[in-house]
Amino acid sequence: MSPLELLASALGAIAVILTIRQNPWCWPIGLVMVLMYAWIFFEVKLYANVALQFVFAGSQLYGWWLWTRSGEQPGQALGALSWPQRLAGLLLATLLSLLLGYGLQHGTDAAAPWQDAGLTAFSLLAQLWMAQKRVECWPLWIVVDVLYVALFISSALYLTAGLYALFTLLAAHGWLSWRRELQLSLVKA
């Protein structure tokens, strides 16, 4: 455990708590966290996760813009995806997992190419759904976070594994909170 991992973990917990509360400051705090994790993952040869952190940096900026933009929909309301949207997202993430896994397996010395690729692809999908305030992001995050705990334990990133265990609990809380708010908004409509 390095001081960088400790600080990145603390920022990650803060960012998720702020996300659950729909506070737009989750995005700049998350931006700092993902840039720190890019370096941490590079050091342990989780290359897809290094790339993921840079994509997350862009998605942090996208989420911040989406959640704070002015105009017709300031603060974008919570919503749900249709079954075809869910299926399309999951199929695209599966395809990306296979392509990225193959590339990592045959083109790098990645420590866990297939796990790294799969978790990266599904994290991208969960992040996109989160930026769009789609309630389905949370159950996907729960599955991804549980699998990340196992990956990080096998990579001796114990503090990060602990953080992702906390993320799992926070994602469950986020799912309940956002679902409740979405149901209330539908009753009022």
Automatic annotation (TrEMBL):
It is found in: Cell membrane. Keywords: Cell membrane, Membrane, Transmembrane, Transmembrane helix, Transport. It comes from the Bacteria. It is a multi-pass membrane protein. GO terms for cellular component: plasma membrane. GO terms for molecular function: nicotinamide riboside transmembrane transporter activity. InterPro entries: NMN_transpt_PnuC. The chain crosses the membrane at residues 46-67, 87-105, 138-155. Belongs to the nicotinamide ribonucleoside (NR) uptake permease (TC 4.B.1) family. Required for nicotinamide riboside transport across the inner membrane. This is Nicotinamide riboside transporter PnuC. It comes from Pseudomonas fluvialis.
